From TrEMBL:
Membership in a protein family: Belongs to the LysR transcriptional regulatory family.
Pfam families named among the record's database cross-references: HTH_1 (PF00126), LysR_substrate (PF03466)
Highest taxon of the lineage: Bacteria
Protein name: LysR family transcriptional regulator
Keyword tags: DNA-binding, Transcription, Transcription regulation
DNA-binding is among the record's keywords: yes
Molecular function per GO: DNA-binding transcription factor activity; transcription cis-regulatory region binding
InterPro entries with a match to the protein in the record: LysR_HTH_N (IPR000847), LysR_subst-bd (IPR005119), WH-like_DNA-bd_sf (IPR036388), WH_DNA-bd_sf (IPR036390)
PROSITE patterns (alphabetical): HTH_LYSR
Organism: Paenibacillus agri
Domain HTH lysR-type: 1-58
Keyword Transcription part of the UniProt annotation: yes
Length: 298
């Protein structure tokens, strides 16, 4: 169907006059008349009958005008939806985040984001680094928020680095190493409680052992969540290698104790990752701006 011709017909039907319709559409009256006649010929049905100086709709024309009105109303709604989406007023953002940002940073960011853009749906998935990047690559996430090292990061992603955070060795306050300085070799003889394989912090600890030609520590307990690992250390067993952002409060309250490992100082990089060579939707750009404005708000 010729949508342009349908629109001309609709305006003639609404105004009851070819002259008024032509003026509203800013085209000549003969052009409107010509296209309406061609539209009738294409349809094989008459739309108008002469009526004095004006025109009257045939029964078919009356029904088609109603359907056209519904069609153009829906067209306007679609245009409004597209513009709202383009401007980032509506839509959905899917965030794949590693444990650290998901639990200590994103709640505040998401609350601020929703306060500004309440019509946007925010879906957050907490996972390890490997799976977060896989979700982003598979277009199952619009953005990945990562806490870890810069080494080995995927090359097909753009990174917005927010801040750095120290990595600490922690134990129970009753542990012999509590608040002491030890060598890395001594520390690696302790049993560790850690996240599952794919955790960036776990990988960095093992990489540290390879750098210093040391046997990796025994992973005595393994959890899919960091909070469970920390609680086990607090209960008096093993050690953990973890972001200071996660355990600083526990150390200050005396529930955990730091262990200073000689000549070792590592940091986490907190970063927002998106797929390279893609135009980011307004929704994603708006969320990233919130994160950049309040990078360390916990």
């Amino acid at each position: 169907m010729n949508i342009h011709a349908l629109r001309l017909f609709y305006y003639v039907a609404e105004t009851g006059s070819v002259t008024k319709a032509a003026a509203k559409l800013r085209i000549s009256q003969p052009a409107v008349t010509s296209q309406i006649k061609k539209f009738e010929k294409d349809l094989g049905l008459p739309l108008f009958t002469p009526s004095g100086r004006g025109v009257s709709l045939t029964p078919f024309g009356m029904e088609l005008a109603k359907q056209a009105g519904n069609f153009f109303t829906y067209e306007e709604q679609i245009d409004e939806f597209i513009e709202d989406y383009r401007q980032g007023r509506i839509g959905k953002i899917r965030i794949a985040a590693t444990y650290l940002p998901a639990n200590f940073l994103i709640p505040s960011w998401a609350a601020r984001f929703k306060a500004r853009y309440d019509q946007i749906e925010v879906v957050i998935t907490t996972t390890n680094s490997r799976q977060a990047f896989e979700q982003l690559n598979r277009h199952e996430a619009d953005v990945a928020i990562y806490g870890g090292g810069l080494e080995g990061r995927p090359e097909n992603m753009d990174w917005v680095e927010l801040f750095e955070d120290e990595l600490w060795f922690v134990v129970s306050p009753s542990h012999p190493f509590a608040n002491r300085s030890v060598t890395l070799a001594e520390m690696m003889k302790e049993p560790f409680i850690m996240r599952e394989e794919g955790s960036s912090t776990r990988e960095r600890l093992f990489s540290l052992c390879r750098t210093y030609d040391l046997k990796p520590p025994q992973v005595a307990l393994q959890f899919n969540g960091l909070n469970e690992a920390i609680r086990s250390v607090m209960a008096g067993y093993g050690a953990n290698f973890v972001s200071s952002l996660v355990v600083r409060e526990y150390v200050e309250r005396g529930l955990l104790a730091r262990v200073w490992v000689e000549d070792i100082h590592l940091t986490n990089n907190l970063a927002i990752c998106t797929r390279s060579n893609e135009q980011q939707p307004a929704i994603v750009q708006q969320f990233i701006e919130i994160c950049k404005q309040y990078p360390t708000e916990v």
